[in-house]
Design brief:
Layout (H helix, E strand, L loop, with lengths): L1 H22 L6 E6 L5 E6 L2 H26 L5 H26 L6 H17 L14 H5 L1 H28 L3 H24 L10
Antiparallel strand pairs: 1-2
Helix pairs in contact: 1-2, 1-3, 2-3, 3-4, 4-6, 6-7
Amino acid sequence: MKSNRLILSLIFVFLPFIYLASIYGDLPEQIPIHFDWRGQPDGWGPKYILWLVPTILIPLVMLVNAAITKKIAEGTASPKSASIGFITLAFSSLMICYIIYGAEAGSYNGLGGLSILMGIFFGALGNYLPVLKRNAFVGIRVPPTMSSEAKWEKTHRYAGPLFLAGGALMVLNGLLFSGGTITVVMLSIIAVISIIPIVYAYRLEDEEPSDFV
């Protein structure tokens, strides 16, 4: 299992570099590097900038994964944290490929692909949140959840289905809508599924002290 995850991790690490190398010669010297909320280009720059994205982002994600692995070995983090670290690596790799694709195509045609990727990412997180133990890296890390194991567990059990539902809606959003509507709907869904669990955590009552000595 660990060897399979290592192989997949290496694939996601090198995927953006391989994809960029395969199309780099066909790219014009000036490419779109910034897009508006409708996915249309509004800024241009030299094509070599595309190499900076995976070169900077991938090592950062790998450093976080290494820190999570160390904490798991020390017994201060749940093994489930490694799964979320892998999900984040895969998502980052695919996002970089999507950025490269947009530079190649000249536009994102309404950011539908971004909404689909975000939906898959949040859906995958929702699958792991209910069993995620309190840790220093991932999760809904607000004062109520970080100060109480019970509030952490309740909040993450509550947030899991919410993230799954939100992820499914974002995938549908990317498939069904077009133009700036995709961005508005996507950001609204992310805001709702992010804020509601935090409000829920703050509304949880403190545990009653036990009568047992």
